Amino acid sequence: MYESFFGMSHTPFARDLPTECLFENPVMKDVLGRLLYVADKKLFAVVTADPGCGKSTLLRKFNDRLPKDEYILLYLSDSKLTPKWFYKGLLEQLGMESGFYRGDSKRQLQKAIEIIQGVQKKRVVCVLDEAHLLDKEMLEEFRFLLNYRFDSESPMALVLVGQTELWNNKLKLQRYAAIRQRIDMYCTLPPLDRADCERYIQTHLGYAGCRQDIFTDTAIDRVFQISTGIPRMINRVCDKSLMYAYQNQKRLIDDHMVSYVAEHEMLAAKNE
User: Fold this and answer.
1) What is the model's pTM?
2) Could you say which of 49, 196, 246, 257 has the lowest number of CB atoms within 10 Å?
């Protein structure tokens, strides 16, 4: 609705921006580089972030940057995942039916990966999203899976992605020490700082084709304060501010307008 009013060709703060148009700060770039290294060396990595801080964006960029002629990416996101369904899900993505027993399915997967690496000359990368919801049995299974050929090599790269509690409330604890010792790389995505918040907003407005300044410096200050640098919240504050400005026929958004939107238009968001 507000796009034509501001001369935009796209909606700036939508979820479906093309991957190449998504904002990438130095931290995101560094974590992406680390994950590409993990994929190349078949390592075990853990990535955590608070909700809305860019885990999905990171995975979209990671998927796009893995050369498809060199890698096969397997992706699972299931809060109720068990070892049996873990192997079943991966084998199905490889076009295979899983065995009835967990051990049979694990051997099937390992054999399939051997063939992929030996015949297709590709590496397999497995990404498990929402990993903070996995129980201890499932996390222990990764340790057994990676203990391959007398612990001399890993069959594939494994990346666990989840909220901060995955590390703080699980992997960091003593009872997870055996799993933690297997982890080759641990990365976090923090909220954006004030400078990156401004660059984030400018990047999204640029994608939308906006050629004029819409948010004043004080408005961006207020967006940063309200969102605390969380990209998902920046999207919501900016989108609702643009709608409010359009409804009031204002072409410049100041801090007072952002504050009004946060107080009156985002009550539902705060209660979610």
Assistant:
1) 0.90
2) 246
